[in-house]
């Protein structure tokens, strides 16, 4: 799903229609179930709901620099807070706290105008300084923010009057409104001495904190002064962290919760037969991978990486572990619906002879590696790993599948052990995906991969307005990742969630989990 891009952006004001025509938009990806064309009842206010997420930890905090799981991104990023822009249901970057945004001719200077009358939950007004300090929270050499790499290109931020904020970049960036929609780049109150006051959980979002028990539950109440007329709809929401999928399913069936992420594929048919439950299947940017640390033997050898990439039968994994609810990936993290995505050649198919050939190039006849997974790594990750073990054995590769505890997996296993299962929610542009995850030194570069040519192209493509040249650059980058990278990308996955039919909604956002993280403000009681 690749929309064309207009290379000319001079003087464009970012209304939704204009920006989609000018910068180029991500086309709509079909949502398969629960996305009917049937007209639904008008939204109404009232009632309370309980949503279950599955990857919270006791170290989760209100600090947006630390958010790396869906629990924090959905609850704090999408429910407690707002950014300058947001992703609408079609994946477009549209105004949120900003009412408009416009680039300079060379795409290096972007001016954002805040909506009038914006207030934080404590009643204080939102000012340009709050925006400036919220961005600086992620910037600078001492920053450990998850999105430091995204904002490194910002060389200056300044106020222009009471409502305008001007960003100056080191180079042009046609995708900058997508960057400002990132869930980490929310606007928080500035401290008088500089920095942001994130500790109390005061922000601008549709719901305010009532009670927070980190990694366990968060209770929230409606923000009566929210800037979107009529929204949100629920009086109150409680989010609970239920890691075990069987426990989530049972809680939904007994009415303890009203919504759960990540349906158990093994019980999918049973849930589909329940007339009180709706299953939503949304084709987004999500993908599952086995990540190899390229700085650790034997994964530091590109031939070993290629051997492993040819030693897995992705079709078999999708059919057996995911029961067909995914699409084959080709060691490319760029989902097909992202603008400029390609499918690099040659296709990495299951090929025992080729896997052995690559082992021989590495000077090996056999190979033994540990693969760390847990059910929280991605749905049915353990089954997928065991199937991989069967496939690889035929090529002389012994994969020792280590079942890690679900609790603490993201804190103690991911980015700590050399070969791990990973669930990626994805990013809406190739620039944001590559900058945060595959560029040298990127915070989520769990493969520790580094490629000079890739890094060079990343900077060039970001500033390029000619769509043909940009496509060529991004195509080469995807080819480099496919051929040399440490990510064994198995599948592009569906977001499959389940909810009580007492909840209703419009079209569900097709990019990120939980209605592009905004289900709390977009959904209502039937």
UniProtKB/TrEMBL annotation:
The keyword Transport applies. Keywords: Signal, Transport. GO terms for cellular component: ATP-binding cassette (ABC) transporter complex; outer membrane-bounded periplasmic space. One of its GO terms (molecular function) is peptide transmembrane transporter activity. The keyword Transmembrane does not apply. One of its GO terms (biological process) is peptide transport. InterPro entries: Peptide/Ni-bd, SBP_5, SBP_5_dom, TAT_signal. It comes from the Bacteria. Gene3D superfamilies: Dipeptide-binding Protein, Domain 1, Dipeptide-binding Protein, Domain 3, Periplasmic binding protein-like II. Belongs to the bacterial solute-binding protein 5 family. This is Uncharacterized protein. It comes from Rhizobium loti.
